[in-house]
Amino acid sequence: MMEEVKVIEIKKSVFAENEKDADALRKELKNKGVYLLNLMSSPGSGKTTTLIRTISLLKDKLRIAVMEADIDSNVDAVRIKEATGIQSIQLHTGGMCHLDAEMTRQGLDNLDLSDIDLVVLENVGNLVCPAEFDTGSCRNAMILSVPEGDDKPLKYPLMFSVCDVVVVNKTDVLPYFDFDLEKCRANVRMRNPQARVIPICAKTGEGVDVFADWLLEDVKNWKQNK
Amino acid sequence: MHELGIVFYIIRDVKAAAEENHVERVSGVVMNIGEVSTIVPEYLTDCWRWAADKETMLKGCELKINIVPAVTFCGDCKKEYETVRYGRTCPYCNSEHTWLLRGNEVEIKEIEVPNT
């Protein structure tokens, strides 16, 4: 005999709870005057090097802390601390391919936020899952490096549609790759007309000041409109 | 790995819904999964089996998947077309001013509980 069942309708997106958590976290951060930047990219695009360069340009103007999220190891947190001297902690996702708002909150609980203006969350290197989970950040930025190709916005549309800024890194190797910066800009625009594209070379520092200036302005605006 | 993360969110929501409805055991969960949601249904059901059996309330609970076909709307000629077949470019007028109407869902439709 078949087991009789009763059906309870739910009709709810799996992401809904996380989005609620993220909105609550964003509000709290606003009240505290803390700006959270969620930095995403593929593995090896140069997130940590870009961060070290950016922090060096901004650390006299803003009080900065960094949360490094990885599946394992603490090499990135150590690198940031050694290179810049700022507060830097490592979050382990325990095998998960992204961070959600609750994990971000737990990370923030381990930082002393009393005298911090800007927290940068370096998300897990991945172009798929981090785009689906709102971390509660004020802004999303992503780094696309030249060797990855100018077609990435077409292949990972969601990532590019959730980002306010797309940093194109490793411009020093442009002569060696079939990477067309204008085509890349057009591909980003197709997914997200509002996104700003900033070409940089984290290794030489070229263009990093443009990104740092954008970030400084944005943090100031965020804190003013409290 | 992506699907396993999603499974943990489904488990959290299903447990919350069961508690709300004073249910002790859930025998089935029905999902609406969009064709272009980046979820691979077989991976989702495999991860579900592994994770759900570790929960007393969800032991043996079956995950059923409805696939929601993806449909794109063209902002220029106002027609709808199959996303997976034609992609971003409208097959009627070649426009790229198109956006997804449906097919991105990762949604718990309903849960089934033994009627005792």
Care to describe what's here?
The complex is a heterodimer of chains A (226) and B (116). With 226 residues, chain A is of the alpha/beta class. Helix content of chain A is 39%, strand content 22%. Chain A has one domain (16-224): 3-Layer(aba) Sandwich (Rossmann fold). In chain A, strands 4-3-5-2-6-7-8 form a seven-stranded parallel sheet, sandwiched between helices. In chain A, strand 3 (64-70), helix 3 (75-84) and strand 4 form a beta-alpha-beta unit. The longest helix of chain A is centred in the first third of the chain and has 17 residues, at 16-32. Chain A is globular. Chain B is of the alpha+beta class and 116 residues long. Chain B has one domain: hypothetical protein PF0899 fold (2-Layer Sandwich). Helices cover 30% and strands 30% of the residues of chain B. Chain B has helices spanning 2-20, 41-52, 83-86, and strands spanning 28-34, 62-68, 71-74, 80-82, 98-102, 106-114. In chain B, the strands form two sheets. Chain B has a three-stranded mixed sheet with strand order 2-1-6, covered by helices on one side. In chain B, helix 1 crosses helix 2. Classes of the chains: A alpha/beta (226), B alpha+beta (116). At the A-B interface, strand 1 of A face helix 1 and strand 6 of B.
